[in-house]
Amino acid sequence: MKIKEIEERTGLARANIRFYESKGLVHPERQGNNYRDYSEEDVETLRKIILLRRLDMSIEDIQAILNGELALQDAVQQTKQALQERLEQLQGSLELCDIMQEREESIETLSVDTYDELIRQREQQGKKFRDVMGDILEDYQKNYFEKTWGIFSIQGSYTKGAIVSFGFYVLLNWFLYTFYILPKDGLRGGFKNALLMLEAFAIVSAGYMLYSLVKILFSRERRPARIGGLLAFGAVLLAVIAVAVGGMLYQIGAFE
């Protein structure tokens, strides 16, 4: 089945289907022209994913269930516990909302000390409130690499993403070199500074690309159709490493 039929049968948008596929939840076969061919099993898997997501079960837990690493009942219990904790948190927040409405608070009259004390009292009673710093830390841990280096996985193509990323780097480096480094340090100094930036970019890129390559190699989906992409990705990785090593050798004067 083509993806359009899957959209009609599951009610999912194409982006959702691609997302679940990228997470390793469904594994459509590849035809000779590299088009995805979804099976009835894929349809049933997607329907189960929809059901479990409606329970607010995490993608990670669903993936573990489908991989046989986590029993459904254990996942349901974990989800139920998380929902119960959220319910308790919401209850405490609802009480404070009621108090604010009763007092007809405005942003000018809102006393943080007063409500901090109310929150403290309710926490002593077992009520829970949102941990703001915890949210920030969790978001940072989950999304740092995606936000910083997400261009490496444009449309699922690491090679294409690396090329686009390198293009951004070249434009940035040209701007800095033309308007800042060259007027300040001259031609030779400008070249060495530019190479140092390229070296730093290459080292960080190589680290992330190695991490991505390990994820691909150890992922559940290992089909021949991936071999070409892996070879191309490996070639780009070797080129980036070569730039990093060459930059370091130049910095220590190996080419002088």
From TrEMBL:
SUPFAM superfamilies: Putative DNA-binding domain (SSF46955). Gene3D superfamilies: 1.10.1660.10. Signal peptide: none annotated. The chain crosses the membrane at residues 162-182, 194-218, 230-252. It comes from Butyricicoccus porcorum. Residues 1-68 form the HTH merR-type domain. It comes from the Bacteria. Keywords: DNA-binding, Membrane, Repressor, Transcription, Transcription regulation, Transmembrane, Transmembrane helix. The keyword Transmembrane applies. GO terms for molecular function: DNA binding; DNA-binding transcription factor activity. Pfam families: MerR_1 (PF13411). PANTHER family: MERR-FAMILY TRANSCRIPTIONAL REGULATOR (PTHR30204:SF69), REDOX-CYCLING DRUG-SENSING TRANSCRIPTIONAL ACTIVATOR SOXR (PTHR30204). This is HTH merR-type domain-containing protein. PROSITE patterns: HTH_MERR_2.
